[in-house]
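Question:
When you can, review this sequence-structure pair and walk me through the tokens.
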Amino acid sequence: MNKLKKFIKKYFSSFAYFYSYLRNKVFIAFFLSVSVSVLDSMGLVMFFPLLEAIDKGKDVNPDG
């Protein structure tokens, strides 16, 4: 456990700072942040079929 504390303080000093005040709430916040980013990306991906449907109505004829 002591090695883990030294490793975290050496490479993740800002994480250690927040962990000292919030304890396990840091992990909850990290998990919620990751889940929000996944859900947000899924919401953006849902626009692709809509944009494709709008784009298919306007085919360009190269022969003019």
Q: What stands out?
A: The chain has a mean pLDDT of 84. The CA atoms of residues 17 and 45 lie 36 Å apart. DSSP finds four helices and no strands in the chain.
